[in-house]
Amino acid sequence: MKKLIFTICAMLFSIFFLSSCENKEKEVYLFSYFTQNGQDGLHLAYSYDGLKWESLKGGASFLAPQIGKNKLMRDPCIVRDNNGTFHMVWTPGWWERSIGYASSKDLVNWSVQQEIPVMAQFEGTKNSWAPELFYDSESEIFYIFWASTVPGAFPELATSESEKGLNHRQYYVTTKDFQNFSATKLFFNPGFSVIDGTIVKHDNLYHLIVKNENSAPAEKNLRITSAPRPFDFPTEVSAPITGDYWAEGPSPLKVGDYVYVYFDKYMEGKYGAIRSRDMKNWEDVSDSISFPKGVRHGTAFTVPLSMLDSLLKK
User: Fold this and answer.
1) What is the pTM of this model?
2) According to the model, what pLDDT value does residue 216 have?
């Protein structure tokens, strides 16, 4: 009798397991980006393997910018929440104290664009660049962080003539609904001018990747630091994890056992990538990837295969 019960339980488990596997849809990769100065809005590319990326809609824009003094849509960052809604933030202009926000269920039809005045209370703020979203699926909290220069807030750094007066630090707010926000606070101050922060969770740690923006002498490389929570990151960062070239706009993506970090080789007009299994030892795989021409500072994320099929048909 016990043997019969065991056999029945084993059969039921097998049926349940196989059914779960069949119902779990395969996921593929999308990449949000802008071109030129960001005046024509949101562009999307897709990939089945994380290496070869092709533009959707023949490279045409999915969403035109409608807010900000300059009406730009630079550095579009997209994440998907537990309910399948996509949330996007972006830089609406070079010298703004706000960031842009919109949401969508299908990446085609978007909500009314919203300006979030993240640095309104910091008088004299020069900019709010490259806002990034990190969604903590367990707490369902969105972390929005970006780079701003607040004159006099930190010790002055030597700069090149073209970057005179810029001394960025990362600030942040949190929200659950994009209607109510926490007060803006300092997010990351490593003692150098820092922009383009992004977070990825891997092996039970949160990893913050940033660009060292110091210009005299020029750094312009990516660094990493890690923490058990998506905040309070140690300000001591790693040595550069990118090579002897200028890199910005890092975007992490898990592909198999690796975490890939794509980035804009903006002085060369092309994209690069590094990858790691342990977030400590990095391999430059820039020669193994291909992106559409003109891609600028984007974000990689996953979507169900059926959504990509729908986008390809449109």
Assistant:
1) 0.92
2) 96
